[in-house]
Amino acid sequence: MNTRDLSANAPYVPGRGVEEVARDLGLDPDELVKLSSNENPFGPSPKAVAAAKAAAEDAHVYPKAAHADLTEKLAARWGLAPDQVWVSPGADGALDYLARATLDPGDTVLVPEPGFAYYPMSARYHHGEVATYPVEKADGFEQTADRVLDAYDGERVVYVTSPHNPAGTELPREELVALLEGVDRDTLVVADEAYGEYTDTPSAAGLLGEYGNLAVTRTFSKAYGLAGLRIGYALVPEQWADAYARVNTPFAANAVALDAAIAALDDDDHVEKSVETARWAREYIREHLDAPTFDSAGNFVLAEVGDGSAVAERAQERGVIVRDTGSFGLPDCVRVSCGTEAATREAVATLNDVLAELDRGAEA
Ligand SMILES: *Cc1c(COP(=O)(O)O)cnc(C)c1O
């Protein structure tokens, strides 16, 4: 037998892993600088690691109490009711839960282009159709309500990413409000704040009391350094009280991840250090990289380098892994994640060498 027709379901293309690249180059993974997946260069909080180790001892038990504990902790943090917090396996899992809660077969969603690949994937998994709105490089990837609304045609779900991946630009608060006002009442606006910790712009979560058609997604994968544990959540409208129980995969997140996330929320110093270093690094990259860059509010910088895949490939040969953004439809760019100070300096120096070398090659 065959699967259903999956031809529209493009596979997710992740940044390359350190082990994989190290093996190819015959290097020790520790010698590589990996700045391709917007991970936290400091790793998880030591408190989260300790909690994860302790939780592993009880891994034979289904996670129930920890799920309730994390949900309540997040609800208190955001000033929401616990049933407005949908804990999930990564924010990607939350995107799935939102799609399950909203899409009937054939419903259409509106996604940014370029943008995060999982929005259209998740919609298609849930039998949805996909339309796009442009986030234009020619306009510095500026995000406004009008740009979205110009493309909007009554879609069931509209995704916005602030800070945007891979551009780093934000949708200002007043623009989000204009978007919420501009769409139909039964269009859900999903504000993806995977990089929300890295900006001073207040979270869209503050608008949940006012707007019944808003959901916010957040993750422990970036500023909290727990990408490997797959834990995130959505904040949803008050009226959705009983929907989570009807759409989530039972025991939505694993016990180790839940306890690690609870501990991570108590380590403000770790998040602060991570955020401050990312802010330093994105300024450093913007100032010192010999290529035009875009203003970023996230823990990464998009740079216009000419031939993105050539630059990424040559940098990788020298032990620096950055993200070739060809899969985002930006073949002339690379995205450089913010590393530690040392790694960021090394990455910029290597990229500048590569850019100079490619320049000489072009002149020769
Ligand atoms: C990283 C990321 C996510 C979520 O990642 P998870 O690891 O699934 O939590 C969501 N949206 C964007 C734009 C991202 O870059």
From TrEMBL:
Keyword Metal-binding listed: no
UniProt pathway: Amino-acid biosynthesis; L-histidine biosynthesis; L-histidine from 5-phospho-alpha-D-ribose 1-diphosphate: step 7/9
Keywords carried by this UniProt record: Amino-acid biosynthesis, Aminotransferase, Histidine biosynthesis, Pyridoxal phosphate, Transferase
Cross-referenced InterPro entries: Aminotrans_II_pyridoxalP_BS (IPR001917), Aminotransferase_I/II_large (IPR004839), HisP_aminotrans (IPR005861), HistidinolP_aminotransfase (IPR050106), PyrdxlP-dep_Trfase (IPR015424), PyrdxlP-dep_Trfase_major (IPR015421), PyrdxlP-dep_Trfase_small (IPR015422)
Keyword Glycoprotein: no
Biological processes, Gene Ontology terms: L-histidine biosynthetic process
Residues annotated with N6-(pyridoxal phosphate)lysine modification: 222
Domain Aminotransferase class I/classII large: from-to ranges: 31-350
One of the Pfam families matching this protein, by short name: Aminotran_1_2
Transmembrane segments: none
Reaction equations catalysed: L-histidinol phosphate + 2-oxoglutarate = 3-(imidazol-4-yl)-2-oxopropyl phosphate + L-glutamate
Matches recorded under PROSITE patterns: AA_TRANSFER_CLASS_2 (PS00599)
Top EC class of this enzyme: transferase
GO function terms (MF aspect): histidinol-phosphate transaminase activity
Cofactor dependence: pyridoxal 5'-phosphate
Domain of life: Archaea
EC numbers for this chain: 2.6.1.9
Annotated NCBIfam families: hisC
PANTHER family: HISTIDINOL-PHOSPHATE AMINOTRANSFERASE, HISTIDINOL-PHOSPHATE AMINOTRANSFERASE 2
Protein name: Histidinol-phosphate aminotransferase
